[in-house]
Amino acid sequence: MQIKFFAYLRDYTGCKITDFPYQEDIYQLAHALCDKYGDKLRGKMLSPDGEDLGEEIIILVNGRHVAHLGGIHAKLVPSDIVSIFPVVAGG
């Protein structure tokens, strides 16, 4: 599966795009990515207890927001493209 990182998340991961081993759902993917890339990513990607997505992250699977796919328990397939963005605020 392909993972795309945007904005400052690229600094945390050291890459824009990576081919990542298939994970069954967003929960497993988020934890695997945080294990690989560290605590800075974990602090943005997951809630403090690790049971939900963080409030400062947007995840799209094939262009669809995970909130519409089952949230952190959204199922994945090996051909999915997962895009991970930080929430952007401003005006």
The CATH superfamily name is: Beta-grasp domain
CATH architecture: Roll
Q: Please summarize the sheet with the most strands.
A: 5 strands, mixed
Helix-residue proportion: 25-40%
Low-pLDDT windows of residues: none
Question: Which outline best applies?
Answer: globular
Q: What is the CA-based Rg, rounded?
A: 12 Å
Mean pLDDT: 95
The CATH class, by name, is: Alpha Beta
The helix/strand order is EHEHHEEE
Computed structural class:
alpha+beta
State the end-to-end distance: 34 Å
Summed up:
Helices cover 26% and strands 22% of the residues. The protein is built from 3 helices and 5 strands. The protein has helices spanning 9-13, 26-37, 39-45, and strands at residues 2-5, 17-19, 57-61, 64-65, 81-86.
Structure notes:
- The chain has 91 residues and is α+β, with helices and mostly antiparallel strands.
- The protein has a single domain (2-86), classed as Roll (Ubiquitin-like (UB roll)), CATH 3.10.20.30.
- The chain is built from three helices and five strands, in the order βαβααβββ.
- The protein has a five-stranded mixed sheet with strand order 2-1-5-3-4.
- A hairpin with a 2-residue loop joins strand 3 and strand 4.
- Helix 2 (26-37) runs antiparallel to helix 3 (39-45).
- The longest helix is centred in the middle third of the chain and has 12 residues, at 26-37.
- The relative contact order is 0.26.
- The model has no long low-confidence stretch (mean pLDDT 95).
